[in-house]
Amino acid sequence: MDEIMDADIKAVFFDIDGTLTSFVTHEVPRSTKNALEALEAKGIATFICSGRPPAQLDAARRLMPHDWTGFVTMNGQCCFDDHGYQEAEALDQGDVRNFIDFMREKMPDVSAGFCELDYVYFNQITGYLADMWKGLGQTAPALVVDDPERALTHTTYQLSAYVPAGEQEDEIMAVMPHSKALRWHPAFTDICPSDGGKPAGMRRFMRKYGWDASQVMAFGDGGNDIDMLRFAGIGVAMGNGTDDTKAAADWVTDDVDHDGILNALRHFDVL
């Protein structure tokens, strides 16, 4: 722990839902906004690191009018900044074909999401999907329905299957050998390339700026944050996070509604 406390932090990566934004108020706490301003004043880079695709960041960004250094989106599949930089990795096209066929034949009543760089759509809007979407509050993006066959002629970077953890998820992943599931919410799982995940996106920015893992800090609360917290020099789980996320972290801070981000940054003498 002494080595962690002495870390020279150059960048901090933040998950959005349940980390920057509260599931209770659906807002960013004032203490978190103050922490972001203080990091910027110290010259420490700040990044959003989310499962959301670029097309679904607008609502969250409106709650955080902050000069972000960059964005890791779709669980690491697309990295970009507001100055023209962008790197992205698509899903295996064979896996996409298998997913479409499987969902149509075996799970016709299940909602599925398809993420391109600038467009996100669903095969259908079920009550299960609508109920989950309500939980996002004012950060929830619009729901658009389109033909899943579009994914065979347009590059797809991430898929989402709105099924609970367990047998259905396992059946889907069995037909997608080049992909893996990442779940941050009990209602659905995101699907990305097997070598993907938030650390893959973080590495892109680390190469760009010349940092190593010991110089980055990360905050998260869900299952898709576990690898990110293990990878970062300092990985912090929110007090409202899942048990497996907390177990993967170097430190468990207070929950998002009780100054968790600011308190952790102070604990590690980053602020």
From TrEMBL:
| Highest taxon, organism lineage | Bacteria
- Keywords carried by this UniProt record: Hydrolase
Q: Where are the transmembrane segments?
A: none
Instruction: Give the InterPro entries listed for this entry.
Output: Cof, HAD-like_sf, HAD_sf
GO cellular component terms, A-Z? cytosol
Instruction: Please list which residues make up the signal peptide.
Output: none
Output one GO MF annotation.
Answer: phosphatase activity
One Pfam family this sequence matches? Hydrolase_3
Question: Entry's NCBIfam families?
Answer: Cof-subfamily
Name this protein carries in UniProt:
Hydrolase
